Amino acid sequence: MKAVAATAFTFSTWASAQAVDLQFYFPVAVGGKAAETIQELTSDYMAQNPGVTIDAVYAGSYQDTVAKAITASRGGNPPQLSVILSVDMFTLIDEDLIVPFDDYLASDEDKAWLAGFYPAFMENSQTGGKTYGIPFQRSTPVLYWNKEAFAEAGLDPNVPPANWDEMVEFGKKLTKKDASGNVTQWGVRIPSSGFPYWLFQGLTTQNGVILANSEGNRTNFDDPKVVEALQYLVDLSQKHQVMAPGIIEWGATPKAFFEGQTAMMWTTTGNLTNVRDNAPFEFGVAMLPAKERRGAPTGGGNFYLFKGASDEQNQAAVDFVKWIAAPEQAAKWAMATGYVAPRADTWETDVMKAYAKDFPPALVARDQLEFAVAELSTYQNQRVTGIFNDALAAAITGQKTPEEALKEAQAQAEAVLVEYR
Predict the structure, then answer these.
(1) Residue 62 to residues 88, 195, 345, 383: CA-CA distances in angstroms?
(2) Residue 275 and residue 255: Cα distance in Å, rounded?
(3) Residue 29: band (very low, low, confident or very high) from pLDDT cuts 50, 70, 90
(4) In degrees to the nearest 10, what's the CA dihedral of 325, 33, 288, 387?
(5) What single-letter DSSP state applies at residue 340?
(6) How many Cβ atoms are within 10 Å of 413's Cβ, its own excluded?
(7) Using an 8 Å Cβ cutoff, are 418 and 384 in contact?
(8) CA distances from 341 to 39, 138, 348 (A)
(9) Quick one: which of 59, 61, 99 has its CA closest to 80?
(10) DSSP state, residue 374
(11) Domain residue limits, the chain
(12) What are phi and psi of 61, to 5 degrees?
């Protein structure tokens, strides 16, 4: 921490002599206080560094943000800094739009700071021996459950399903119907819009299979274990009838949970504060249920440095990133949003220890990192994940069998990625 503080002081002294303007693209992908908190933090930094002006541009969803950053870069007006999905790293490299942080993190202190991030988050941040992304609003999917609904169904309200079989068993007890046979409460809700591949990757990881290699140039979409995982997801609706049929909306899922339309939901830990503030009942948070193993993908966004900036702008951007990742600011961000503080030093602060003691669910996603894998990420990532998402949708809506859908998706992804090998 002393090294970070010294860097900020030195930079502030230098910057006061010559103004530096930064444009910073920032997505808002979850409810709660994300936008408000990032504005407060940005303003605090500028107050401490009067030579730096940061224009925080709220660019919409993650998909909107990467599209705007690419468009602006192609038009000769890139942002200097942006938070973009960690999985878009290969795309940004392929488009030749970003520069690695390594040139600006050259000292021993800098390298020690870089080593302080959780390894699971760095899997989607480094490639080819270089660091292209700095973890910021990072997450894993977790299971939320309504303790009142569990008690009403005769289940222990403090014990979530530990495995796939129990999720079905509990789901059957939790699914409620009215006198006409219409479902008023589903057992579980796993969204299949927005980020369908991400939540589905929880199932594939638990089934012991990885969707893509670490080089980002080969996928395993038609692996029998992937097919088995997709069949399980489809069966939750069609066979076991514990989840609503068809595509389940990502954005509407927390509200459905609050309103008692589902007793369990899978969503990002980035919704943790949103749930804490808005659930009208006592709820629990747990790691995703296991099959062959525990497991979940990491998720969320990294900071990226864009080409076209001056050295002074890059130095200012890196200084801001180091400042906002420092324990005091990272703790404020984590408590306001529910995102996982990506460094262990943040969790060692008194304020985070007190927060975790008062609200133990905050520790679930952090502890799940032990079992986490890299989020699906390849070259031409949006195209490849689009192919995969379409396959998931085809199986979920009954247009194709899981095996048919995934076999076609693998062939299409292979056609895209073969040139990168």
Answers:
(1) 10, 10, 27, 15
(2) 9
(3) low
(4) -90
(5) B
(6) 25
(7) no
(8) 18, 7, 11
(9) 99
(10) P
(11) 2-138+300-365, 141-297+380-420
(12) -70, 175
Q: How far apart are CA 160 and CA 178, in angstroms?
A: 25
Q: Which of 85, 53, 54 is nearest to 69 (CA)?
A: 85
**CATH topology identical between 2-138+300-365 and 141-297+380-420:** yes
Asked if the model's pLDDT at residue 27 lies above 90, the reply is no
- 2-138+300-365: CATH, from 3.40.50.300, 3.40.190.10, 3.40.50.150, 3.40.50.9100: 3.40.190.10
CA distance 4 to 114: 11
Q: Which of 138, 139, 156, 143 is nearest to 285 (CA)?
A: 143
Helix or strand or coil: residue 30?
Answer: coil
- 287 contacts 367 by C-beta, under 8 angstroms: yes
75-89 per-position pLDDT tens digit: 999 999 999 999 999
Distance CA 21, CA 23 (A): 7
Helix (H, G, I), strand (E, B) or coil at 194: coil
- Identity of the residue numbered 395: A
- How distant, in Å, are the alpha carbons of 28, 143, 301, 303 from that of 88? 16, 25, 9, 11
| Cα separation, 24 vs 139, whole angstroms | 21
Rounded CA separation 397/399 (Å)? 6
Give the distance from CA 117 to its chain's centroid. 15
CA nearest to 301, candidates 142, 139, 141, 137: 137
Q: What is the CATH number of domain 141-297+380-420?
A: 3.40.190.10
CA distance 274 to 258: 10
User: How many Å apart are CA 109 and CA 115, to the nearest integer?
Assistant: 10
Q: How far apart (Å, rounded) are the C-alpha atoms in residues 277 and 271?
A: 10
In the structure encoding, which two tokens stand for residue 190, read together? 């796993």
What pLDDT is stored for residue 5 in this prediction?
A: 41
- Helix, strand or coil for residue 187? coil
Q: Could you read off the pLDDT of 298-350 as tens digits, one per residue?
A: 999 999 999 999 999 999 999 999 999 999 999 999 998 888 999 999 999 99
User: Residues of 183-209 as b/e, b for ≥16 C-beta within 10 angstroms?
Assistant: bebbbbbbbbebbbbbbbbbbbbbbeb
Beta bridge partners of 372: 296
* Percentage of the chain modeled with pLDDT above 70: 95
372 pLDDT above the threshold of 60: yes
